[in-house]
Specification:
It is a single chain. The protein is mainly alpha-helical and 84 residues long. It is 86% helix and 0% strand. It has three helices and no strands.
């Protein structure tokens, strides 16, 4: 099994708990700190994209009823035109 520090050096995937342990001061070399910073940025970006995804879902769910109302109104107009 690959150790946490080897993963940091090679840019491999690490878990959030490993990141927290590392953030407590386990990494002392400058290369490790730079890699840790990149991992923190990556985790922050993932959280941001997930939050944006939740907002997009909420907006889409709000728009479905309005879209259905517009479709219904359009179908009513077509029905009226066909009856004349």
């Amino acid at each position: 099994m690959t150790s946490f520090y080897e993963k940091l050096k090679t840019g491999g995937l690490i878990t959030l708990s490993q990141l927290r342990r590392c953030a407590r001061g386990a990494v002392h070399c400058s290369a490790g700190r730079k890699t840790l910073k990149a991992v923190r940025v990556r985790v922050s970006l993932m959280r941001g994209y997930r939050a944006a995804g939740r907002m997009n879902i909420a907006i889409a769910e709000e728009c479905v009823p309005a879209d259905n109302e517009a479709l219904y109104a359009g179908e009513q107009k077509l029905t009226e035109c066909e009856q004349k």
